[in-house]
Design a protein that fits this description.
Elements lengths: L8 E6 L2 E2 L5 E4 L5 E5 L6 E9 L3 E11 L28 H17 L8 E3 L9 E8 L5 E6 L6 E3 L8 H21 L9 E8 L5 E4 L5 H8 E6 L2 E6 L11 H18 L3 E8 L5 H6 L6 E5 L5 H7 L3 E4 L2 H7 L6 E5 L8 H9 L4 E6 L2 H13 L3 E8 L9 E7 L1
Parallel strand pairs: 4-6, 7-20, 15-16, 15-18, 16-17, 18-19
Antiparallel strand pairs: 1-5, 2-3, 3-4, 5-6, 8-9, 8-11, 9-10, 11-12, 13-14, 19-21, 20-21
The structure holds S-adenosylmethionine (SAM).
The site of S-adenosylmethionine (SAM) has 20 residues, from helix 5, strand 16 and helix 7.
């Protein structure tokens, strides 16, 4: 087919499997792969091709001719418009099983490793789980207030009244407070400043009756009362605020915490890691280090976002460093088999950080990841440097979406 004259093409395709990112995968008659948004394995779908590349194509379902028994009616009226919860067409109680298959294949393909037989995905509530969100509060010229999520591509806003994955506390808070927050923001502007019609706001539900919020330009005198909050986890009080990173599924988080604690204890018990030093890299407000602080003689936390430091200093008395992890690793010699936890953003470990860990005396690494693709990439490098995969666990922190949290334990 001449790519230049490709305008519109509709064809019937049998979906082979689900792939990373949640799309169904099929093959075109010419052998190229087609990634189909909204399709499930086994289904026969009429697909409209939207993207036509030399090596692959992309399409969307126009009609499902033969349905999977696992197909569900999307619960949210904004499915397909908001861009947020693209897996709602798959039964909630089947999502972890499909994710497990996707990840087993992902790790085989990208890292040439079989995930262990006992690899499990821990699950929690399918809806009403998300305790952290960024929303836009917008007003019309007439002053009518609405709120929604910002669209990734167009920068437009998808308005909602009730988002079914947000916690009930966040939905209630928005209904009662969106107008007040916008008015408060307008009052804080200098008199002669033209008021914008859109305000990006971070919201955080601490799971214990308090919703905190933050917007750029919030008066410093309001910050403590409105943005800061405390989460109770594993018997510890952890201070944070709505402007910085915090885990976004508090209901399932105890299972990840438990897995990390067990992994740490196992390393201390079997002698692979020492209680002389815990290093928590990409530490946010010192989340894991705070929970583990009683087990170690010395603790270092390293986090790039300066806004986290004041909380880390409240949460634990340790060497809390505000710096990129790769810079800290370049300047500090880790010459004992310290216990090391890394929890990088989606991009995974910066290559220089990974190299420094390999060259250090660390023999056991607990790697928490929110992106299995970069985890697979980094794992392959650790494996080539002599580390073995000891344990792998998954956590369905983001039901209705294709995203997955994982924890790997590596040792050498
Ligand atoms: C997935 S979060 C984990 C935070 C923390 N472990 C927790 O559980 O709350 C990743 C953190 O890494 C921080 N970060 C991103 N790049 C970094 C870098 N190069 N060095 C240090 N921290 C970084 C982000 O600001 C964010 O707080």
């Amino acid at each position: 087919m001449d790519l230049a004259i490709f305008i519109l093409m509709i064809l019937d395709l049998r979906i082979e499997k689900l792939v990373q990112g949640g799309e169904g995968m099929a093959r075109l008659p010419d052998g190229r792969v087609c990634f189909v948004q909204g399709a499930l394995p086994g289904e026969l779908c009429t697909v409209e091709l939207l993207q036509n590349k030399k090596d692959f194509t992309r399409g969307r379902v126009v009609k499902v001719i033969e349905k999977s028994p696992d197909r569900a009616q999307p619960k949210c009226p904004l499915y397909g418009k908001c861009g947020g919860c693209s897996l709602q067409h798959l039964e909630s109680d089947k999502q972890a099983l499909y994710s497990e298959r996707v990840e087993r294949e992902n790790f085989k393909r990208l890292a040439h490793v079989e995930l262990p037989e006992n690899f499990v995905i821990h699950t929690g509530p399918a809806w009403g789980y998300r305790n952290r969100a960024r929303v836009v509060i917008a007003t019309s010229k007439e002053g009518k207030v609405r709120y929604g999520f910002r669209m990734q591509k167009s920068n437009g806003i998808v308005s909602f009244e009730n988002c079914p994955v947000l916690t009930p506390a966040l939905n209630d808070f928005l209904k009662s407070n969106a107008s007040k927050i916008y008015e408060e923001f307008v009052r804080s502007l200098p008199v002669n400043r033209k008021k914008p019609f859109e305000l990006d706001v971070n919201l955080f539900d601490n799971g214990n009756g308090k919703v905190s919020y933050y917007y750029k330009g919030m008066p410093a005198s309001d910050f403590e009362k409105k943005a800061v909050s405390i989460v109770e986890m594993a018997g510890k009080r952890i201070q944070s605020d709505a402007s910085v990173f915090f885990q976004s599924n508090l209901q399932l988080l105890p299972e990840l915490v438990n897995a990390v604690q067990n992994a740490v204890d196992e390393g201390l018990d079997n002698g692979e890691a020492s209680d002389a030093w815990l290093i928590d890299l990409f530490s946010g407000v010192g989340f894991f280090a705070t929970i583990l602080k009683d087990r170690f003689k010395k603790i270092t936390t390293v986090e790039r976002d300066e806004g986290c430091l004041k909380h880390a200093n409240v949460n634990l008395s340790a060497e809390n460093v505000s710096a990129p992890a790769e810079d800290w690793l370049a300047e500090n010699v880790v010459d004992i088999p310290a216990t090391l936890i890394v929890d990088p953003p989606r991009t995974g470990l910066p290559p220089s950080a990974l190299d420094a860990i390999v060259k250090s005396s660390v023999n056991r690494l607990i790697y928490v990841s929110c992106d299995p693709v970069t985890l697979a990439r980094d794992f392959a490098k650790f494996r080539d440097a002599g580390f073995e995969l000891k344990r792998a666990e998954g956590f369905a922190f983001y039901p209705q979406t294709p995203h997955l949290e994982m924890m790997f334990v590596l040792s050498r």
